[in-house]
Amino acid sequence: MRYQTQEWVDAITEKSRTDEEYLKKAKTLTARQRSVIMDAPGGVDILLIWEWKEGKVVKAVRQEKPAPSEWRNLKNEEGLISTTLGAYENLAKIARGEVTSQEAMAKKLYVLHGDMIKVFPKMAGFNAFGQLVASVKCDY
């Protein structure tokens, strides 16, 4: 299974619904978030929209377009807690557990658009989700 493929999204979705340790840590994560993954293998940009309810992924939508796509210009919009934009290789560092989301943001490995007053209270849930993602074995 390759990172950022539909198979990978499906594996994370399933694990988010069944991993009891994760669910304890992420129980306050109820949100919708959008990510733009730029310059993925195959010369594409990937758009992912994650929706969580009490930590469980209840919906995950994945699309791709040839890079560079207009998705690179997306800002946040109503109904989303945030929109993140980052290069495939930089986001892979988070997925491998090499850095947390906050460390990656501080190092400017990705950009986050959203209301930080709404995002910060969810960071424990987002970090738990990052750990869950890192636990799903895949090829990069």
Can you put this structure into words, describing what you see?
With about 140 residues, the protein is α+β, with helices and mostly antiparallel strands. The chain is built from 6 helices and 5 strands. It has a 5-stranded mixed sheet. A hairpin with a 3-residue loop joins β1 and β2. The longest helix has 13 residues. The N and C termini lie close together (about 10 Å).
Structural topology:
Elements: H1 6-18, H2 20-25, E1 31-40, E2 44-53, E3 56-66, E4 82-87, H3 88-95, H4 101-106, E5 110-114, H5 116-119, H6 123-135
Parallel strand pairs: 1-4
Antiparallel strand pairs: 1-2, 2-3, 4-5
Structure summarized in a few sentences:
The protein has 140 residues and is α+β, with helices and mostly antiparallel strands. Helix content is 36%, strand content 30%. The radius of gyration is 14 Å and the shape is globular.
